[in-house]
Design a protein that fits this description.
The chain is α/β, with parallel strands linked by helices. The chain has three domains: 1-64, no CATH class; 78-215; 223-340, no CATH class. 36% of the residues lie in helices and 19% in strands. It has 15 helices and 13 strands. It has helices spanning 2-13, 18-30, 34-47, 52-64, 66-70, 103-110, 130-140, 165-169, 205-208, 233-239, 267-274, 278-281, 293-301, 303-306, 321-327; strands at residues 82-87, 90-96, 121-124, 146-149, 176-180, 194-198, 217-221, 228-229, 247-251, 253-254, 284-291, 311-316, 334-337. The strands form two sheets. An eleven-stranded mixed β-sheet has the order 1-2-3-4-5-6-7-9-11-12-13. Strands 8-10 form a two-stranded parallel ribbon. Strand 3 (121-124), helix 7 (130-140) and strand 4 (146-149) form a beta-alpha-beta unit.
């Protein structure tokens, strides 16, 4: 068994070397492990995805050897609320939208499958037991690279808040996270490159203090049915020290600043961005917040600071046609939308 697990680790360590994987798969076949044959069949399907014989072989292998391949999860492999993503003999991704059985029990069985270290991506959508699922993840501590927590199959958040701090603390291998806002605690994610937060609250202190040196993309979204007043200016200042950040999207966010009198609410945010060090690092910026004449003028006055952007996406309220036309030429690709 130890030799077999060593072979598993060796295969997973050579994801970019198919020839080595196939040699190791032969060793598994010789030892009587069905995963070797499954790896070979799924590799052949990558080259010939519409081959009906290979498709049948894949299904037969998984059905015939479900207990060996999936352990306690074998009984649930055809549940409507469970979706498994296979890649060269191993389960690499899973999605749970189970509302009929205990979702936390299903997750626990998933995290006990043989070679569970191959599981790199997990999505928890419409489940009934989020607290139980969170406790299970904290206890099992899988080496996930991508987690979508409370996100349905269409990419929508299914709840608005929760305590994510215990979860983020035990998943240091994460490279991508999508989930709702709430209590985030101290964010220390050394490998995370993409962070996508929904239903963002007014308190952004956890994001301001976050330690994520590899961060490349940050997406913060308010509620879809209205604009929220969230002052992101301190976050923009903090992100100026994030050397790898290339994409920033602020959706459904505006600022109410009494010093401006009665501006279009996103104008102070745009003016602050124009003078922020983070702008020079970005390749793409998106703001879904009503920008008026003051904000457009601020961008035009600082046009050279925006010219390097590969894409600029803005929500612009009623402004002069000439200003709008000039704004559309600030960067190589500019998309302007009307307010909701």
């Amino acid at each position: 068994m130890a030799d077999r697990e060593a072979l598993y680790r060796e295969i997973l360590a050579h994801d970019d070397d198919v020839d080595t994987q196939l040699v190791l798969a032969d060793a598994l076949i010789d030892s009587g492990d069905p995963r070797g044959r499954l790896l070979a069949v799924q590799r052949a399907l990558e080259l010939d995805p519409w081959n009906a014989d290979l498709q049948r072989d894949e299904v037969r292998l998984i059905d015939r050897h479900a207990d060996a391949l999936l352990g306690p999860l074998a009984l649930h492999r055809y549940d409507d609320g469970l979706e498994l993503t296979w890649h060269r003999g191993f389960v690499r991704g899973a999605a749970i939208d189970e509302q009929h059985v205990s979702s936390s029990r299903l997750l626990d069985e998933l995290l006990q499958i043989p070679a569970v270290e191959s599981l790199s991506a997990l999505r928890l959508g419409h489940v009934l037991d989020f607290e139980g699922c969170r406790a299970c993840l904290v206890a099992r501590r899988p080496a996930l690279r991508r987690l979508e927590y409370g996100i349905d199959a269409h990419g929508n958040a299914v709840f608005e808040e929760g305590n994510l701090a215990p979860l983020l603390e035990v998943l240091p291998t994460l490279e991508a996270f999508v989930g709702p806002s709430g209590h985030l605690g101290r964010i220390r994610l050394p490998k995370v490159r993409s962070f996508d937060l929904r239903y963002v609250s007014r308190d952004l202190s956890a994001l301001v203090d976050a330690e994520w040196p590899s961060l490349e993309s940050l997406r913060l979204a308010g509620r879809a049915d209205r604009y929220d007043f969230v002052d992101v200016r301190p976050l923009l200042d903090a992100l100026g020290a994030t050397t790898n950040l290339r994409e920033l999207a602020l959706l459904g966010m505006e600022i109410w600043d009494d010093d401006w009198g009665d501006p279009t609410p996103a104008d102070p945010l745009v003016e602050h961005l124009a003078g922020s060090p983070v702008l020079a690092r970005l390749r793409r910026f998106e703001l879904d917040g009503r920008i008026g004449t003051t904000g457009v003028t601020a961008i035009l006055e600082a046009a050279p600071a925006f010219a390097h952007l590969e894409e600029l996406v803005l929500t612009v309220a009623d402004v002069d046609v000439d200003l709008r036309d000039r704004l559309a030429r600030v960067a190589p690709r500019v998309r302007l939308h009307s307010p909701r």
